[in-house]
Amino acid sequence: LKIRYQDFKMQETPATVWKDTFTAYTTTDDADDWFSRVLGQRVELLFSGEQSNRVREKLGQNVSFADGYPVLVISQASLDELNRRSSELPSMDQFRTNLVVSDTKPFEDDSWKRIRIGEVEF
């Protein structure tokens, strides 16, 4: 599947994430058909773009389709410790993280308020 921004229909449509309804925009019929076929039910691929108005008040910034935070961080040490304690062996994918950090103590990342990567601070 290939889609191009210039082909997006950009029709306003309501989207809801965790009981938070906001305006999203339609993309293409081809994308909708492809995802519907893969998922086995009728769905639409939506776009939030710069026009998105979903802002998390606690953060004071736009988070589009994210659960509540635009960046999710976990440490490898935390996952390793969870695996040590559990017979279920969770994988990193289950946490839907964007960034995995190393060289930390287990769960040290739970208290972080900011993280810096090079010159960029999150």
UniProtKB/TrEMBL annotation:
GO terms for molecular function: catalytic activity; molybdenum ion binding; pyridoxal phosphate binding. It comes from the Bacteria. Residues 43-122 form the MOSC domain. Pfam families: MOSC, MOSC_N. InterPro entries: MoCF_Sase_C, MOCOS_middle. This is MOSC domain-containing protein. It comes from Vibrio parahaemolyticus.
